[in-house]
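Field reference: sequence -> structure
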Amino acid sequence: MKKGLIALGIIVVLVIGIYSWAAGFNNKAVKLNEDVAESWGNVQTAYQRRNDLIGNLVNTVKGAADFEKGTLTAVVEARAKATSMTIDPSKITPEQLAEFNKVQGGVSSSLSKLLVTVEAYPELKANQNFLKLQDELASTENQILTSRTRFNEATKPFNSHVKTFPNSILAGIFGFTGKPYFDAEAGAEKPVEVKF
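Structure field:
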């Protein structure tokens, strides 16, 4: 009888221990996953702000200069493509993040070309609305960088939690997988070439 109670006691302690470990793992993974999702929302908010400003910038430039239509069209198309892409932060894959980076890189490239082309229009460079929009865009680009950095900072503890052993066993059971990090855009290692 005593041996049966001791065995039962050991089984109960093991079950409680395993349950506590699994519950603790799951609760921490859920919290860290929510942190990643929040950071992703901040990234999208920063990009949305930039996309909203682009419309104002394009209209200001259009109204102030007889402007190169090709550059203007490229900016509008890149913005449209960027705003049409959505990613679920709970199911983000490296491929989706790479595609998102590619689309946003197209916006950055088009904006750079627009701002370089604008240099040929002195009356536009002196326009207060344009200068304010240019400052807003610079501020927004800094917010995007900060949001992307914070996304990577939120992703690291989540990935560490679900990829380390023995947590990786429970991660598979509960369906948690590692999240991709933001990387530099393709060609970012090359200096930007500005031509006038």
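Note: The two ends are 93 Å apart (CA to CA).
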